[in-house]
């Protein structure tokens, strides 16, 4: 989906989207560039980041790659030294529950241990903390900033066999709400977009191998389909714009009606 007539909606702003070499992060980075922002595309892979930047530049946008591991404090500070202060921070980098494609099934919490928990908590919570802490002081000094965290309905609603992943995402939402209360008077807003099942990466591969899986999963969604990586991008642009200056501390579902917000 292209945002019509929004070519300068966030023009003049500089944005960082973490985990933007593929999937949802890439779609958000592209949409932000279409809306006029200059975008830093973060990824663990320089090849993926450069490919996303090439697509943005091919449409006439401005983008640069930056490689960093959001879970690593020093790596994040090296990234900040590269990008300098920014206006918009999208904490998209994260990992889901166990892969659809590697033959591993989701398992109950009782069958997991610390080796399973730690990587999930590090990227989905600690990664958000590291990146936000690095960039926040400049946002406060400028008295304008947008922080967006991509989370999951596993954290809003709770899902069987996804309890640690859901806990990490719920904690990220709690962090966003608390931070919003701290920084709102400094012109900085903090919000979350919460996603349902998205048809990309390992899930897309699983559906290709078993087409019946898509219809089975889609039955849980009132709109009758799974999410596409482009679905959250328009809302991400809106929440990171001047138009959203009175919206903060909120969690917005982009999930086809799976778990409505009240």
Give an account of the 3D structure.
The protein is of the alpha/beta class and 262 residues long. The protein is built from nine helices and seven strands. It has helices at residues 23-34, 46-58, 73-83, 114-142, 153-156, 163-183, 201-209, 212-218, 233-239, and strands spanning 14-17, 38-43, 62-67, 88-91, 145-152, 188-195, 251-254. A seven-stranded parallel beta sheet has the order 3-2-1-4-5-6-7, with helices on both faces. Helix 1 (23-34) packs parallel to helix 2 (46-58), helix 1 crosses helix 9 (233-239) and helix 4 runs parallel beside helix 6.
Keyphrases for this structure?
262 residues; 7 strands; globular; seven-stranded parallel β-sheet; alpha/beta
| CA radius of gyration | 18 Å
Distance between the termini: 26 Å
- Which consecutive residue ranges, at least 5 long each, have pLDDT under 50? 98-104
Helices, by number, come to 9
Helical content (DSSP H or I, runs of 4+) = 40-55%
Roughly what fraction of the amino acids lie in strands?
Answer: 15-25%
